[in-house]
Design a protein that fits this description.
The complex is a heterodimer of chains A (about 110) and B (about 110).
Chain A lengths: L3 E4 L2 E5 L4 E7 L3 E9 L5 E6 L3 E5 L2 E6 L4 E6 L8 E9 L4 E3 L3 E6 L1
Parallel strand pairs in A: 2-11
Antiparallel strand pairs in A: 1-3, 3-8, 4-5, 4-9, 6-7, 7-8, 9-10, 9-11
Chain B lengths: L3 E4 L2 E4 L5 E7 L5 E7 L5 E7 L6 E2 L5 E3 L9 E3 L8 E8 L6 E3 L3 E5 L1
Parallel strand pairs in B: 2-11
Antiparallel strand pairs in B: 1-3, 3-8, 4-5, 4-9, 5-6, 7-8, 9-10, 9-11
Classes of the chains: A mainly beta (about 110), B mainly beta (about 110).
């Protein structure tokens, strides 16, 4: 099946810093989503981005489908950005696969 | 608009007991799915349903589902085992491969 690798696995930032999270996938995909899992376990939708670039406030994402990667940018990080960020893809066969996540800690 | 609702939020089960985790969505989504999440790992797909009346599984036995209508997709643990201790998350989407929305999860412990 398709492999999804996220990097880095852990990231510690000072409040106000910028960061880039990466998601690599091993085959072509129909769908790619970025989620933020908050400390209570809720998965919050950030972006549905099979290709191209999207922005939402301090967050933006870019997926280059032909090169099989996606990037999530967080600017001017806040303590509330802390949590685990997941990348999830749906293969052409319809199977959904999640990466293992990036754990972000933003210190005040 | 409640989105995807899961109950219960927490439960402790004894080995060998059975239990049904509930999942309901009010977005008229055709596609629903169940995942489990183990510590330090991403989500792993267990079962999915492309529409009412259809289901398909991704992992071996120990679980069962039904999709009698569009809104509900309950997951049944037939005879619970400690290896099924996990957080279970339910998701729905308009169709296969479209944007998925998740419930808050059920944290299940099997002792």
């Amino acid at each position: 099946g398709i492999q999804v690798e996220q990097s880095p696995p852990d990231l510690i930032l000072q409040e106000g810093a910028n960061s880039t999270l990466r998601c690599n996938f091993s085959d072509s995909v129909n769908n790619l989503q970025w989620f933020h899992q908050n400390p209570w376990g809720q998965l919050i939708n950030l972006f549905y981005i099979p290709s191209g670039t999207k922005q939402n406030g301090r967050l933006s994402a870019t997926t280059v489908a032909t090169e099989r990667y996606s990037l999530l940018y967080i600017s001017s990080s806040q303590t509330t950005d802390s949590g685990v960020y997941f990348c999830a893809v749906v293969s052409n066969a319809g199977k959904s696969t999640f990466g293992d996540g990036t754990t972000l800690t933003v210190k005040p | 608009n409640a989105g995807v609702t899961q109950t219960p939020k927490f439960h402790i089960l004894k080995t060998g007991q059975s239990m049904t985790l509930q999942c309901a969505q009010d977005m008229n989504h055709g596609y629903m799915s169940w995942y489990r999440q183990d510590p330090g790992m991403g989500l792993r797909l267990i079962y999915y349903s492309a529409a009412a009346g259809t289901t398909d599984k991704e992992v071996p036995n120990g679980y069962n589902v039904s999709r009698l209508n569009t809104e509900d997709f309950p997951l049944r643990l037939v005879s619970a085992a400690p290896s099924q201790t996990s957080v279970y998350l339910c998701a729905s989407s308009y169709g296969e491969g479209t944007e998925a929305f998740f419930g808050q999860g059920t944290r299940l412990t099997v002792v």
